Amino acid sequence: MKRALNIGLPVVALILVVLGAYQGLVVAPTERMMGEVYRIMYVHVPTAMMSLLAPTIVCVASLVYLVKSSRQADALAEAGAEVTVLFATLCLVTGSIFGRPTWGVWWTWDPRLTSVAILWIAFIGYLALRRFVDDPDKRATWSAVTAIIISVDVPIVYFSVKWWNSLHQMQSSPNTVDPSIAAPLRLNITAWFVVFLALLWTRYRIGRAERDREESTPVGEPKAVLRMSP
Amino acid sequence: MIQGGWEFVWAAYGFAWLAAGGYAVSLWRRSK
Amino acid sequence: MSFVREVVTLVAKDLRLEWRSRTRINATLFFALLTLLLFSFAAGPAQALQAANAPGYLWLALLLSSVLLLGESLRIELENDSLEALRAMAVDARALFVSKALTNALFCFLLGVVLVPVAVGLYGAEVKLGFPRLVGVVALGTLAIAAPGTLYATIAVQIRARDVLLPLLLFPVLVPGLLASVRASSLIMQGDPMGQTGSWLLLLAVFDALYWILCTLMYGRVIED
């Protein structure tokens, strides 16, 4: 079962991304108003969704860790945080490339954009914290606390920026646009979701292996020795 | 109005694939 | 001992401790004043521009010097091993947090009270709705800095790279609090024809309440051994 996931998820993810790109870049028609540029949506919208899904998983895993002190939950939170930074980066960069031709600027203080930017930098801080703490239990507890503080913050950032800057963009949902444009979007969302699962699962496995090694090594032993032991 | 076309599309797709692919490769190397 | 009495005792202890290290607080004050000066150099000599940006500069100066205060206040605790001692005396972690955060909020607030007239004078700004309201915003805003700031400082002082990590963790979280403080301050300073100050103050109060509760509840896990 686990072996099937290890190989199967990345393979399915790759196939779906290729299919999605074909649908988005070749099959989908040129849009009347926006020309070709709208195709960026097929990578921007799915990555934006994943950049919100990933921190949700970090938040839940962190709560579970604080209640049960389970190492699995800590490994999942760590994996989720790395994947959050990846998808937030993708969302911000593709959004910026999307913004230039459509709004004429690389960056605007749109609430959604700003929230993802804060989320991105906050999780970079979270990952930095993890790097700097050696004691596994302290690392897990402190990062769980940090993750919860960040999770509470993001919705407040969204509303405060919305108030601060009432300029906003149309929010198009797949139901209101033409089916020939909406169908590739659904496929691409599915594809990036499987990419997300594959990356999260692989990172989680690495985290579990690291924790098993940490546990089997006596405290205080230098890391060089740790690597050489079989 | 809209200025530009495919070059923006390729830039966005190219970046997304490179970043996601690069992260996947780094994970694959760490998992061995 | 009741919770309130415990907090009062701890705050008194913290204040005595801070009084003994008052040179540090003086240094922080001059650092904050220096920051205000530097902002006006960055903005250039145009008086109108400086006046318009005064609320933002005020809050940035307050934020930067607050981070120094927070780091220092927890570092003293750690150097004297007083966290260990308090833990050994079975002091309630929540009382410990509330007292520490209150002391920090108080010092940040006092810093803000000194900075407000200096910023107003230096940048040639007005305070159309009066100083008392501005001081009220400073109180709410420094409460917002102090709660997550005290929690993160407690983590940061226990690890390597504490000086980089505290702002890296704290600043993203403070964005809504800072935004609300700057908006409310600039409405009070530059006039508020639409009556928007209230909603920013409400946002700030909600932010304060959320983080004071959240951090109080979680502090025990941060200092546990």
Structural class given helices, strands, pairing of chain B?
mainly alpha
Choose one word for the global shape of chain B: rod-shaped
> What is the N-to-C succession of helices and strands of chain C?
HHHHHHHH
Quaternary status: heterotrimer
Most residues in contact, chain pair and counts:
A-C, 29 and 32 residues
| Average pLDDT rating of chain C | 90
Main pleated sheet of chain C = none
Structural class of chain C: mainly alpha
Q: What share of residues are in beta strands of chain C?
A: under 5%
Number of helical regions of chain C? 8
Low-confidence stretches of chain C: none
Query: Based on DSSP secondary structure assignment, what is the total number of beta strands of chain B?
Result: 0
Task: Give the fraction of residues assigned to helices of chain C.
Answer: over 70%
Q: Which structural traits does this protein have?
A:
heterotrimer, B: 32 residues, mainly alpha, 1 helix, 0% strand, rod-shaped, C: 225 residues, globular
Notes on the protein architecture:
- The complex is a heterotrimer of chains A (230), B (32) and C (225).
- Chain A has 230 residues and is an all-alpha fold.
- Chain A has helices spanning 2-27, 41-68, 71-103, 111-132, 136-164, 179-216, 223-228.
- Chain A is built from 7 helices and no strands.
- Chain B is built from 1 helix and no strands.
- The mean pLDDT of chain B is 88.
- Chain B is mainly alpha-helical and 32 residues long.
- Chain C is mainly α.
- Chain C has 8 helices and no strands.
- In chain C, α2 runs antiparallel to α3, α3 packs across α6 (131-156) and α5 packs across α6 (131-156).
- Chains in contact: A-B, A-C.
